[in-house]
Amino acid sequence: MRVWSRYFRAYTKQIVVYFLFCAIFLLTFALYDLPLAAVLYPAAICTVLGLVILILNFISFAARHKELLALYSEVTVTVKRLPHAKSLLEEDYQQIILSLFQEKVDLENRMQSRYTDLIEYYTVWAHQIKTPIASMRLSLQEEDSPFSRELTEELQSIEQYVDMVLCYLRLDSSSTDYLIRKCDLDAILRQAVRKFASQFIRRRIKLVYEPTGFSVLTDEKWLLFVLEQLLSNAIKYTKSGGTVSITMDEPGILCISDTGIGIAPEDLPRIFDKGYTGYNGRGDKKASGIGLYLCRWICGNLRHRITARSALGRGTVICLDLNRTELERE
Predict the structure, then answer these.
(1) 70 pLDDT exceeds 80?
(2) What one-character-per-residue DSSP string does 73-122 give?
């Protein structure tokens, strides 16, 4: 019905002009006192023929409309299937479409080239900066003092930020390597805890952890990244003398909780948003709002679900639902 209305709207001017001409003939014959049948019969015949032509033309119009609708879904890929132009104006419109499409393709190619160059540069930078980090770590290991241990932790933070950069660069990359297999969750957790052992000791934060005995279908490297981010946040926002716990509340539900400063209720729904730091982030100028965003992205790719609950002054609990087995093993 909509096609009919759009079609007749397009030909309204021609129809009105036709009936206006018929009225002029009728008025002229009436003024000269001529038989009106001499006008009515030809007008009726022309009206019938006009309706037939309109119907045939509508069938062609509807077919072209359907063809263009089918092409609409492919216009981002190609415009080679544009229907043959039947008038000069249609040719002009098609030339405009082809010109705009080519400009769009050229712009996408330029942007993709710039994006590729940017990714390659930062990937090289992230790998190159690991060399001086490793050298500084070796130098600090030669001296055992409170100052050197503090510098080692700061160096560890730098290394973590570099890993975040690499992870961020790989998010939209087609080369992101996910190796899905059965992994020992405790082995992954021990790696993450071992990385932050010095911080637990120096900050006098108690760690509560009991082996889970759970096997998870996941990618070990990327799940380790998520766990390191969650432990880093738990340590960062927990004061000296507090507690960080790693527990399996239910089969497959891993929870990392702390007794830190907590998250404001208005901030809780948005802590996984990109760049969102909330009240705590405004107090901690080092917060980037990227860590939890990366965790949610990675968990989505791994078919794990990440959730959070918190109360101001009472701590935060981040839970990972690892009961996701839809992924194929490799």
Answers:
(1) no
(2) TTTTT--TTPPPP-SHHHHHHHHHHHHHHHHHHHHHHHHHHHHHHHHHHH
Structure confidence by residue, pLDDT tens digits, 120-143: 887 788 778 878 888 887 887 777
pLDDT at 330: 44
**Rounded to whole angstroms, how far apart are CA atoms 267 and 306?**
16
Name 226's Cβ contacts closer than 8 Å, sequence gap at least 6. 294, 295, 298, 299, 306, 320
Which residues are CB-neighbours of 141 under 8 A, at least 6 positions away?
152
Task: List, for residues 200-209, the tens digit of each pLDDT value.
Answer: 888 899 999 9
Instruction: Please state, in angstroms and rounded to a whole number, the distance separating the CA atoms of residues 113 and 131.
Output: 28
| Mean pLDDT, rounded, for 155-162 | 81
Q: What DSSP string runs through 44-86?
A: HHHHHHHHHHHHHHHHHHHHHHHHHHHHHTTTTT--TTPPPP-
Mind listing the pLDDT tens digit for each residue in 292-316?
888 998 898 888 999 999 888 889 9
| Residue 275 region by backbone torsions, left for phi larger than 0, else alpha for psi between -120 and 50, else beta | left
Cα separation, 293 vs 237, whole angstroms: 17
| Radius of gyration over every alpha carbon of the chain, rounded to an integer in angstroms | 35
Contact residues for 106 (Cβ-Cβ < 8 A; gap 6+):
none
Which structure tokens are listed for 245? 């716990």
Name the helix (H) or strand (E) containing 220.
Answer: helix 220-236
d(CA 305, CA 63) in angstroms, rounded, equals: 48
Q: What is the widest separation between alpha-carbon atoms in the chain?
A: 122
The arithmetic mean of pLDDT across residues 168-187, rounded, is 77
User: What whole-number distance in Å separates Cα of residue 21 and Cα of residue 42?
Assistant: 12
Top pLDDT among 34 and 215 is at 215
CA–CA dist 104, 75 (Å, integer): 11
What single DSSP character describes residue 288?
-
